[in-house]
Amino acid sequence: MSRELEHQLSEYCMEMDQKQGALSFVDVLERTGELQVIPGRGNQRSPTRRTWVVAAVAAVAFIIVALAIRLLPPDDTLDPVDQQTTTTSVQPESEVIRGWPHTLQNPAGIYSWDLSTCSGGSCTMGFMHNGYGSGDVDIDFREAILSDLDDEGTPVIVAGYDGFYLRTGDGVEEWLVIIEGKRVGIRLVAAPGTSQADLDEAHDIIESIRTEPFDNRFGFRLVFTLTTDDWDSG
Predict the structure, then answer these.
(1) DSSP state of 45
(2) 158/184 Cα distance (integer angstroms)
(3) Contact 159, 202 (CB under 8 A)
(4) Are 99 and 111 in contact (CB under 8 A)?
(5) Rounded to 10 degrees, what is the CA torsion of 169, 172, 173, 175?
């Protein structure tokens, strides 16, 4: 056995001493079954030449195993399953689109003008006001037959479509938009002294309008968002 191999074996034995008690060279030979008793010398034991070869091979094997253990990743990374963090993604609730606001107080949420459906109970289709708030603002949706907004109005975008906007009276604002060949008019009427907050809320409702395919004579409905529970349909 070379000096280098003996040195490595000695280091390994010292390391094992600290972990599980002394491990001598004789221990290695005994574990390999290659230690022989010399007749006539009592209990004195001496390794044969074959024993030295086997011992050297065993020592090299021990060193290789020790080095492999040192190169292994820490225990907390051995089992990726144990380290796997389970994350549960919270799926958003399906969007609930109600019909037109009914005549009583309506919760904040998403509503629609589909020409026929109320959100519950009865409603005045196309008309709503902030009756549970100041009561100063009315909004109504309607099918527009004729309008002069095309000539006098300011070009705007409504529900993603080209339209026109015009102030037609004191506190009265109107929007006209043509959606899939259908003319839709939206009117906002604010009472004198209406607060800016109420006007801003009404404008936010109109700006939130979008279209969605729907089975009616238009082929679509207008969907919008109420951010407070102040609105009802009279």
Answers:
(1) E
(2) 10
(3) no
(4) yes
(5) -90
